[in-house]
Amino acid sequence: PPLYMQRYQFVIDYVKTYRPRKVIDFGCAECCLLKKLKFHRNGIQLLVGVDINSVVLLKRMHSLAPLVSDYLQPSDGPLTIELYQGSVMEREPCTKGFDLVTCVELIEHLELEEVERFSEVVFGYMAPGAVIVTTPNAEFNPLLPGLRGFRNYGHKFEWTRAEFQTWAHRVCREHGYSVQFTGVGEAAGHWRDVGFCTQIAVFQRNFDGVNRSMSNAEHLEPSVYRLLYRVVY
Ligand code: SAM
Fold first, then answer.
1. Tens digits of per-residue pLDDT, 35-88?
2. Residue 150 beta carbon below 6 angstroms from any ligand 1 atom
3. Which of 34, 73, 121, 128 could form a disulfide with 101 if both were Cys (CB 3.0 to 4.6 A apart)?
4. What's the CA-to-centroid distance between 43 and ligand 1, angstroms?
5. What is the tens place of the pLDDT at every residue in 88-119?
6. Pocket-testing residue among 55, 90, 106, 115, ligand 1, by greatest number of atoms within 8 A of Cβ
7. pTM to 2 decimals?
8. Residue 183 CA to chain centroid, in angstroms?
9. How far apart (Å, rounded) are the C-alpha atoms in residues 76 and 79?
10. Domain of residue 39, residue span
11. For ligand 1, what atom is nearest to the CA of residue 32?
C-alpha cells in the first residue's frame, strides 16, 4: 500500500489496540484519516479534525456525513464528528481532555520556532493521554528518486532520526510523557540502516497521580477555533 495509507493504518491499528474515546486529528486536510476512523470506530465517541486551511476542510467535509448504511447498521453507540478551522499553536479550551491527538505529516509544515509553540500547546496545554506524530525521515531521502531538497515544497524542515528523537525526548522531560519510536516504509537490503521513510513517535502521558482525563466531562463549545461542521450520529 502507498505510504500515506500505511500512516493511516498505523493510527487505525493504534485505535484498535488502545481504544481512545476522544480523538483529535491536527492538520486533517481533506479528512481522509477521519473518514477511515469513522469506519473503524473501535469505540470512538468524539472525532475532531482541525486544520488551519478552511478551503481544504470545506472541500471534502461532507464525506463525513452519515450514509444510509450508517442508519441501517446497528449503531456502535453515539458518535460526534466535528471539524474546526484553527491552528495547533492556539490554546483552545475545547481541545483539552482528549485521549489521543494525531499529527500526521504536520510538524514539518511549521517553522522550527513554531514547533516549540506546538510542543507547549499540545503536550503542555491540551495534555492528551497519547500523541502520535509522524514526519519524514531525512536519512531516507537519498533513496527517493530524483529528489532534490525537501520532499514537498511546503516543508520547512525534515529531520534525521536523531533530530526527531532529541526533540521528542525533550518534550517528554518537559511535559511528563514517555515515547517510543517506529515508522512505516522500509528500505530493502543493506539500505535498511537509513530507517523508515516516515518516522513515527508515539507519546504516552505518564501517570501523574491525577486523573486528568475528562472523557466523561461535557464537551465545550469552541472559543478560539471556528466550527465548520458537526454531525451527530
Ligand atoms: N494529515 C493529512 C494527511 O496525512 O493526509 C495532511 C497533512 S498535510 C501534508 C499538512 C496539513 O497541515 C495541511 O492541510 C495544512 O493546512 C495543515 N497545517 C499547517 N499548519 C497548521 C497549523 N498551524 N495548525 C493546523 N493545521 C496546520
1. 999 999 999 999 999 999 999 999 988 889 887 777 776 667 889 999 999 999
2. no
3. 128
4. 25
5. 999 999 999 999 999 999 999 999 999 999 99
6. 106
7. 0.95
8. 14
9. 8
10. 3-232
11. 5
